[in-house]
Give the backbone structure.
Amino acid sequence: MKWWVYIVECADGTYYCGISTDVHRRVRAHNTGKGAKYTRGRRPVKLLYAVQCPDRSAATRLELATKKTPKHKKIDFLRKNAKGQSFLGIT
């Protein structure tokens, strides 16, 4: 099973990081109010980045590290790595 760590931008400009085996389904869930409690009042969300991990454990570790990273460092990372492209086939 493939696990992904993803970052979405909420309508209020905040970021949310999570893990999923199906990023498209998870983003749809966030946008219909059935995702994380954090994103329910901050819809719509927009997928900014996703990266595949070898297993759930690795995905969870990366998710926690990402959540601990200050927003300005996340923005720098996204500017350097996002470049408006489709990430790993996910749009």
User: Anything to note?
Assistant: The chain has one domain: 3-81.
